[in-house]
Amino acid sequence: MEAKVGIRMILALSVTIVMAVTGCTGNNIKLEGSGDKGSLTYKTEDGNEITLSSKGEVPEGFPSEIPLPGGMDVTASTHSENSGNYTVSVEIEKPFDDVLKIYRDYIKDAGYTQTLEMKEEGYYMYSGTRGDELFMITFNQDQENKKLVTGALVYEKKP
Q1: Could you tell me which of 24, 44, 112, 148 has the fewest CB atoms within 10 Å of its CB?
Q2: Chain centroid, CA 144 distance in Å
Q3: Distance CA 54, CA 58 (A)
Q4: What is the pLDDT averaged over residues 39-43?
Q5: pLDDT in tens, 23-40
Q6: By C-alpha distance, which of 116, 138, 140 is closest to 128?
Q7: Residue 16: pLDDT above 90?
Q8: Which PROSITE patterns is this protein grouped with (predicted)?
Q9: How far is it, in rounded angstroms, from Cα 87 to Cα 89?
Q10: What DSSP designation does 65 have?
Q11: How far apart are CA 151 and CA 94, in angstroms?
Q12: Alpha helices in 86-129 (DSSP H)
């Protein structure tokens, strides 16, 4: 069940990204890449470009100050040079509360100002800004394996 939800999330994210990149204006887009390589790059006629990857790696340029704890696997990622956006989908083999502590400590130490916070049992979402930067996290506790957390890290800084 979790895998189906993750696949749906990635597909929905892909459609949203393509719509954002093309501006829903009917622009033609060009796809580059290969399923064999695990990434695709969408390019529009006006030069917008976004890369989707399932390589299991954090995209080049993702801020090194953002924690990537042991036990973390990258399941997918996107990067847009035009918007300065990085989105990294992750699975973390740690208890939910431990993951939240890592990122709450980072947020506090990094000086982000909270713009949104949602908490429920086994779910956490945070969004904050620091100058012209945005940082957002979303985490869900796996209901069957309580030591597995899935989620996303989003960082954006306009170029």
Answers
A1: 24
A2: 23
A3: 10
A4: 73
A5: 544 554 444 455 554 777
A6: 116
A7: no
A8: PROKAR_LIPOPROTEIN
A9: 7
A10: T
A11: 12
A12: 96-110
Structural domain boundaries of the chain? Answer: 39-157
Query: Rounded to whole angstroms, what are the CA distances from 105 to 8, 45, 81, 124?
Result: 30, 42, 28, 14
Residue (of 103, 84, 115) closest to 151 by Cα position: 103
Query: Class assignment of domain 39-157?
Result: alpha beta
Question: How high is the pLDDT of residue 10?
Answer: 52
Q: Which residue bears the tokens 């995209």?
A: 59
The Cβ of residue 129 has, within 10 Å, a number of other Cβ atoms equal to 14
Higher-pLDDT residue of 41, 78: 78
- In terms of Cα–Cα distance, which of 65, 72, 71, 68 is closest to 109? 65
Helix (H) or strand (E) holding 130: strand 123-130
- Residue 105 tokens read as 């400590």
Strand partners, 116: 127
**18-48 CB burial, b ≥16 within 10 A, e <16:** bebbbeeeeeeeeeeeeeeeebbebbbeeeb
Selection from 86, 89, 85, 53 nearest residue 72 by Cα? 89
Q: Of 22, 158, 155, which is closest to residue 78 (Cα–Cα)?
A: 155
